[in-house]
Amino acid sequence: MHRSAPHPSSRIDTLAVHAGDDPFRFLGAAAPPIFETSTFVFPSFSDAVAAFADEQEHCVYTRGRNPTVRVVEEKLAALEGAEACRLFGSGMAAISAAILSCVKAGDHIVAVDTAYGPARAFITGYLSRFGITATLVDGRDPAEWEAAVRPNTALFYLESPSSGVMKLQDVPAVTAIARRHGIATVIDNSYCTMLLQRPLELGVDLVVYSGSKYFGGHSDVLAGAVLGPAERLRRIGDAEYPLLGGIIGPFEAWLVGRGLRTLPVRLRQHQVSAAKVAEFLAGHGRVARVHYPGHPSHPQYELALRQMRGASGLLSFELDTRDLNQVSRFVDALRYFRLGVSWGGYESLVFVPVIGAMRRLPEAQWPNPGLVRIHVGLEDVADLIGDLDQALRAL
Ligand SMILES: Cc1ncc(COP(=O)(O)O)c(C=O)c1O
């Protein structure tokens, strides 16, 4: 094997370390250089003509192609087992680009009602300006998707598990319905990543990610990705990518690439620790219910075993109280679980969904104030369980 040839292994840990990287493309640099440049210049007129013939394949301007971004896109595509990948400046930039690539004015979308809030707002609110209608479904029963299909349905939008109460859709069953009707499918796979769920193998057309979560892994970067067949990504590369311009900067892409190298190792630890935390919470007297697809108490545990390879570090649970004073006492007593949105970083976080609803919605529409979401970070799990235990005692 030539020293600079791509690594031949298809094992995920090896791909995470080596895929996309070819040090000898960049003077032997073990870490890819950050091409922090907006534009690229040409030695001659004819070189410029050749480059402009295909701005996706040649570096002309960073809102088309950038070598650092490309290295990371290649690593992600190899990890996903996808033909192609495009990185974006945030998960929402990737999600909106993927959705827009599937619809036109007058179309109809069926989406799961627990999809990430801004994705839902984009589908049901923003797109209505263009005459695009939407039906939200609970989504657990594939028959609901079938029943929601109209002659103008162009897209099924899935998020499984959802990141609030970890609700699953039967991905092979839903994509089979979509295929029968000629409907495109997009799934947000941020919760699992491609390590714990392989949506393309389950029949999905496009996979979208918030790379701000596990890909980056250190709560220091916003990023997004769309993965799928080369022909679909090529069209996105010609249209939504340069025209909406929600692209990622070279430095942010580099941070994602660095994060991906340790993704399998980090995710294994998140998973092991979260399973222990879920078990502790499920047995605690002040906890009414745990929502974790990796725990046998999850109502769709069998489906999780069938279509997922494990659950990640994010879970939620319901306290045995709905009293806001009690809930706030619990949250304020936590020491390792810091209060904030997002997840997927090295650190443990806690969020109470009612906080997000209080300013926006009338009280009758608030979620259960006792619903608490935690991300189980990479701290020693004994410290995390001890932290939850003492905070539950403060209730
Ligand atoms: C499940 C899920 N999808 C998408 C997003 C949006 O990603 P970003 O914040 O990178 O735009 C988030 C962010 O919290 C999320 O939790």
Treating each run of at least 4 consecutive H or I residues as one helix, how many helices? 16
Query: Which small molecules are bound?
Result: pyridoxal-5'-phosphate
Number of domains: 2
- Taken in chain order, the helices and strands follow as HHHEHEHEHEHEHEEHHHHEHEHEEHEH
Major β-sheet annotation: 7 strands, mixed
Which range does the strand content fall in?
Answer: 5-15%
What is the SS-derived class?
Answer: alpha/beta
Shape: globular
Kindly provide the radius of gyration, computed on alpha-carbon positions and rounded to a whole number of angstroms: 22 Å
CATH architecture of the largest domain: 3-Layer(aba) Sandwich
Mean pLDDT: 96
What is the terminal separation in angstroms? 62 Å
- As residue ranges, the low-confidence spans are none
Fourth CATH level, the homologous superfamily of the largest domain:
Type I PLP-dependent aspartate aminotransferase-like (Major domain)
Number of extended strands: 12
CATH topology assignment of the largest domain: Aspartate Aminotransferase, domain 2
